[in-house]
Specification:
The chain is of the alpha/beta class. It has helices spanning 14-28, 77-81, 108-112, 151-160, 179-185, 199-215, 232-239, 252-259, 268-283; strands at residues 2-6, 33-37, 53-67, 87-90, 95-98, 118-132, 138-144, 168-172, 190-195, 219-226, 244-249. It is elongated.
Amino acid sequence: MQIAVASGKGGTGKTTVSVNLFHFIAKYTDSDVQLVDCDVEEPNTVLFFHDLIPVNTRKIYQNIPEINTETCTFCKKCSEWCAFNAITLVASRKFARVHVELCHSCGACIVACPNSAITGKPHFLGDITKYKTESGKYLTEGKLKIGSTMQTFLIKKLKEEISNNDSNIILDAPPGTSCQVVQTLLDSDYIVLVTEPTPFGLHDLKATIEVVKLLNIPFGVIVNKSGLGSNDVYTYLQENAIELLGVIPFSKTFAHNYSKGNILSDIFEETTSIYREITAKIWTHQ
C-alpha cells in the first residue's frame, strides 16, 4: 500500500507523522515498510534516525537540449513545439538558448527540428540516496541541486526507485499544493493530510482537500497539536463527512525532543496507541 502524507502548510507535523507511522509499522506489525522523503528541496527525515547505514547514492541527470547554431536554420519549430517556453531564438544574431530552469526534458524540440540541430546533453539535477535503518527497513531521500527548479522531475525519478516494491510505502510529501506535491500524491492508494487546529491550518487544509478530490484518491485527516487554537477544524471535518484518523495532543516535551531529533527514541511510546488507531483506519482502505 502506498500512503502519501501531506499538509497544506509547513510546520503542521507532516514529517513527524510520516516518521512515526513508518516506525510504528516497522516495530509493531509484521508488514514490510519503507519511507521515502519526497521533499527534495529540504529532505529532513534522516535527522530522526541515529544509526542509518548508507546503501547507495545515485546521481540523477536531466537530458537538456543543446542547439548547434551552425546547423540550425532558425525555423523556430523547436520553440513552437516547446510547451514550457524554454527556448529563445534570435535569427539575426544566430543566437539560440535553452533555459535549463524551464526545460522539462520532454524531447519535443528534438523531434520537431528538421535539421537534427538539437541533441540532448546530461545536466546534473540531484541525488537519490537509500539508507538502511536500525530496524532493517529502508529510507530513501531525494536531494535537489541547489538552485534547480525541477522538483517534480526528481520526485518522479525518486518514485520510480520504489515503483516495483511490494512493501508498504510512506511518502513524505513537500508542504503546500504545488506541482511537486501533486507529483508525490499521484498513484497513491491513500493520502493522510496533517493539519493543526488554527485558522491558517484550516484554511490550507481546505485548499489541499480540493486538490486531493481532483485526484480522486481516498484520504483522511490527522489533527496535530490538539489543544491549541479552536475546534473549527473538527466542525469542518464533521460537516463535510471527512474521516478523522487521529488526534495528537500538543506537548512541549514532544516539541523539545523533536527539536533535538529524538522523536523516535524518547517519546514514541507516549503516542503508540494513537498510531495504532491511525494505522488500523488507514489499512481499512487497502
